Amino acid sequence: MVHVLEFNDVSVVRNGRAIIDGLTWRVDESERWVILGPNGAGKSTILQLAAAMLHPTKGEADVLGERLGRVNVFDLRTRIGFSATNLARRIPPYETVDNAILTAAYAVTGRWREEYDKVDHDRAREVIEAWDLEALAARTFGTLSDGEQKRVQVARAVMTDPELMLLDEPAGSLDLGAREDLLYSLTEYAKSPLAPAIVMVTHHVEEIPPGFTHAMLLADGKAVHAGPIGETITNEKLSEAFGRSLEVSSSGDRYTARAAD
Ligand SMILES: Nc1ncnc2c1ncn2[C@@H]1O[C@H](COP(=O)(O)OP(=O)(O)OP(=O)(O)O)[C@@H](O)[C@H]1O
């Protein structure tokens, strides 16, 4: 079987420091992963690798069966849905929501000279409806609230029917209602047998959508623990990754966590 992601002893070195340090990790197409860890642990860097935005300094990283460093990353990126705030910053503030979603078809952020087919326009319309964006479609991206922009970012990631979906803090900065709405939409999306493999970075266990199957706990660029979610999101393992005593509880498919002392 070809893994969606296959990292073998991958390191990313910046200023002489391994910000990702010897990571070996596999993701299969039916899996939905969450990556948790303290600030600066390397979570976003892993997503940058998975999004073919970054090459490893050492080791081998295969994304959708293609080895980074040997493949045209511009072609590869059109097969990946990626939602991240630093990517959203590249969406021109004067771009309409319609166009911000449509341009994902070319994995670009601003409309320029690309030719879009009817199928792209139809798909954009479908995604706008599915992610409750009809009322915002004609608005410019720069006038949207943080929560509305997050929803557009996820819709962009869905637009191309990706083979791999990467979400960097999709619920970050959302109010409670908006977070729950987004989690509901993500849960429904992830539940579909047609949904791609998903890797989501978050700071909070409360933001893990029900149905996610695996978790990686990252600290100092190293995967401290990685595996099936129920075996990984535990008091001991979370406490080890965050370097403080934490207590986690679950109700149904949702988690909450707090300091144990
Ligand atoms: N280009 C760079 N040059 C030097 N250091 C970098 C560079 N990019 C990232 N880093 C450092 O690498 C570490 C990992 O960064 P990364 O953004 O992946 O962490 P993170 O776990 O996503 O953090 P956060 O939870 O705060 O968003 C951080 O210490 C960051 O300062």
Structure description:
By secondary structure, the chain is α/β, with parallel strands linked by helices. It has one domain (about 5-260): 3-Layer(aba) Sandwich (Rossmann fold). Helices cover about 30% and strands about 30% of the residues. It has nine helices and twelve strands. A six-stranded mixed sheet has the order 6-7-8-3-9-10, with helices on both faces. A hairpin with a 2-residue loop joins strand 9 (about 215-220) and strand 10 (about 220-230). The longest helix has 16 residues, at about 175-190. The termini are far apart. The relative contact order is 0.17. The model has no long low-confidence stretch (mean pLDDT about 90). The site of adenosine-5'-triphosphate (ATP) has 11 residues, from helix 1. Keywords: ATP-binding, Nucleotide-binding. This is ABC transporter, ATP-binding protein. InterPro entries: AAA+_ATPase (IPR003593), ABC_transporter-like_ATP-bd (IPR003439), P-loop_NTPase (IPR027417).
Overall residue-averaged pLDDT value: 92
CATH class type: Alpha Beta
| Poorly predicted tracts of residues | none
Biggest sheet details: 6 strands, mixed
The CATH homologous superfamily name equals P-loop containing nucleotide triphosphate hydrolases
Domain ABC transporter: 5-245
Pfam family, one: ABC_tran
GO molecular function: ATP binding; ATP hydrolysis activity
InterPro entries: AAA+_ATPase, ABC_transporter-like_ATP-bd, P-loop_NTPase
